[in-house]
Design brief:
27% of the residues lie in helices and 20% in strands. It is α/β, with parallel strands linked by helices and 616 residues long. The longest helix is centred in the first third of the chain and has 32 residues, at 92-123.
Length: 616
């Protein structure tokens, strides 16, 4: 369905009022006085054009249609901002329950009004494989291009989106409700080794200073395969997940492989909430006390989003990118807008298409969706932009949404040379690239925020995380890094401050103080200085060691000139006319000189690495 591109180049925990001391009586009265009402979709029946790729098959070509009824939670293309303002005072958990109830009721009412004609079309073979969905009030079905006019006669039909024929989504996923998230896990920030990005994003400060590590959150990872991983089973939710392609809980759908590419799904989950253990002393997660569940859904997004909402998920990670959806983008956007109002935070990487696509098409669906989808671009560990990272802006000019140019992405995280672990426990410190992994870092940050306050709305989370990010590009918002690098500590502290105010408590301990929790770019880059290390290769062995160097040696100078970058080394060697060079080498804490014949340089592979440790 979607081109997964990463470079080798998210149980309803409904809490009774007794557990909600922070909810004011006024909020509860507003909840009762303001029912969740649907809106009318204006205009006559609208049908999208037949995609060019289908026109050549003629009138008898089978297609999939996505049909909207004329009553929706969000009626027009501007309704999202209007209605989140209307419902902002309703606690998130309560709004989720009430929206869920209303969405299902309206769906049933609309479908019953249309049922007679739908059944007639079904008996005539005009409509097959009909799948009712409530996340957008409507249904999906298979029909032929020649029969599109008959669909317009169905009572209540408002919009018909034409797409290529898709596989049936198995909708018999069992719904679980449990409050036993992270029931046996006790987090200790000093127990295991954590990767560098947890420190750079200040997640470690959230753990240590605020005592929050993601407990109580459920994070859904939408991917296409999850390798069997004993380590990731430790943070997997009891609901496990669901494969909507075949109607089972089987999430591992490919043969066992040592390919890094096949680790895509579990590594996305690991970055969000991967845990350490006595058998595996590395803790990869931004929110290690959170739990994850996987979903696989190649043909449709409706079923998996409905499943996530019904199971009380907090975040929904989408590390995939779909190009050229045309008007069908509106259907995706409406699903995710409705899901956001139900309390689900949708996150996606910005994409890896800077070198292959032009702006405004570098960011595709779903990362191009305004407001409802949080898009994370990526930078390298030293905060420089990766050459493949997609950037905004994006453009929305569909029949339903006419925003024009939209600023994207929201923020940035890291997407280059990230650590990876295998089923056998082996860890490679620098192996995976792509915005597929910047998105889960955003999810992890949101999990920390949701763990601090389950009642915070997604639109408030977006507001906070963008306003507390560290500007690392040109001053202000920019199309490559958005509002800047995620700062988990500043974001969570702001959540706690607002929660204290809402509860009528003193927010002083969470007030901003100069320098506290801020990300100092200059200090960070200074501590991250690079060194040149002698690496092993097929030719480096006894002969190389005889010449005076061995794997692991750090080269600090050449002919008296200091070195700290690989391009400096390469330039110096290329310009050298001497038969020998003198190197200053650091080995086991001791510094010494090595005289090296230039002809023996082929025996060595010089690597540029960061002096700061990967794990600490």
């Amino acid at each position: 369905m979607r081109l997964v591109n990463f470079c080798i180049v998210f149980p309803i925990c409904f809490v009774g009022f007794v557990f909600l001391p922070c909810i004011h009586a006024q909020s509860l009265r507003q909840t009762e006085e303001n029912p969740i009402e649907f809106e009318d979709v204006d205009g006559k029946v609208w049908v999208s054009s037949v995609p060019n790729s289908l026109q050549r098959f003629g009138e008898n070509a089978e297609i999939t249609v996505k049909v909207w009824f004329d009553r929706q939670l969000l009626g027009d293309g501007k309704a999202y901002q209007r209605r989140i303002t209307e419902w902002d005072s309703i606690p998130s958990q309560i709004l989720r329950e009430r929206c869920l109830e209303t969405l299902k009721r309206e769906s049933q009412n609309s479908f019953l009004k249309a049922k007679k004609v739908i059944d007639q079309l079904k008996e005539a073979g005009t409509l097959t494989d009909i799948r009712q969905h409530w996340i957008v009030n409507g249904f999906s079905a298979t029909t032929r291009i020649a029969d599109l006019k008959k669909l317009q006669e169905i009572p209540g039909v408002s919009k018909i989106f034409i797409v290529r024929k898709t596989n049936t989504s198995h909708r018999n996923a069992r719904t679980f409700r449990t409050s036993e998230i992270a029931r046996d896990f006790v987090f200790d920030s000093e127990r295991w080794l954590h990767p560098w990005y947890t420190r750079a994003l200040k997640a470690d400060q959230v753990w240590k200073k605020l005592g929050i590590s993601g407990k109580g959150t459920l994070n859904v990872i939408h991917d296409f395969h999850f390798a069997d991983s004993p380590q990731m089973a430790k943070s997997q939710s009891p609901i496990l997940g669901f494969n909507f392609n075949d109607g089972t809980r089987q999430l591992s759908v490919r043969p066992k492989s040592e390919s890094v590419r096949d680790l895509h799904g579990v590594m996305c989950a690991a970055i969000v909430c991967g845990r350490g253990s006595p058998e595996f002393k590395y803790e990869f997660g931004i929110a290690p006390s959170g739990e994850w569940a996987g979903v696989i859904s190649r043909g449709e997004i409706e079923s998996s989003v409905e499943w996530a909402i019904e199971n009380g998920a907090d975040t929904y990670s989408m590390s995939f990118s779909i190009p050229a959806l045309g008007e069908y983008r509106s259907h995706w956007r409406k699903i995710l807008e409705h899901g956001t109002i139900c309390g689900l935070c949708f996150v996606s990487g910005a994409g890896n298409f800077a070198k292959t696509a032009k702006i405004p098409r570098q960011m595709r669906t779903p990362e191009d969706i305004p407001q409802a989808v949080f898009a994370a671009a990526g930078v390298q560990r030293d905060l420089t932009k990766t050459v493949f990272s997609s950037q905004g802006p994006v453009r929305w000019q569909t029949e339903h949404y006419r925003d024009g140019e939209v600023r994207k992405p929201e923020v940035c995280a890291f997407n280059h040379q990230l650590p990876v672990f295998f089923e056998n426990g082996n860890v490679i410190e620098s192996a995976i690239n792509g915005n597929s992994f910047a998105g889960p870092m955003f999810c992890g940050a949101i999990a920390l925020m949701r763990s601090a306050d389950k009642e915070i709305h997604p639109w408030r989370i977006r507001e906070i995380i963008t306003s507390t990010a560290t500007d690392i590009g040109p001053p202000g918002f920019d199309a490559s890094t958005g509002h800047g690098l995620i700062n988990c500590y500043q974001a969570v502290r702001e959540v706690l401050r607002l929660k204290a105010i809402r509860a009528g408590e003193n927010p002083a301990r969470f007030e901003q103080t100069f320098g506290s929790g801020l990300f100092n770019v200059k200090n960070y880059q200074y501590e991250l200085s690079k060194v040149l290390v002698v690496g092993s290769n097929s030719r480096e062995s006894q002969r190389a060691e005889t010449n005076g160097l061995k794997a692991g040696d750090v080269i600090t100078a050449i002919d008296g000139e200091k070195l700290n970058a690989l391009h400096h080394w390469n330039d110096r060697i290329a310009k050298s006319n001497k038969k020998s060079i003198e190197l200053m080498v650091l080995r086991d804490g001791e510094s010494f000189q090595v005289a090296l014949n230039t002809e023996s340089l082929a025996d060595y592979k010089i690597r540029e690495v960061y002096s700061a440790p990967v794990f600490k």
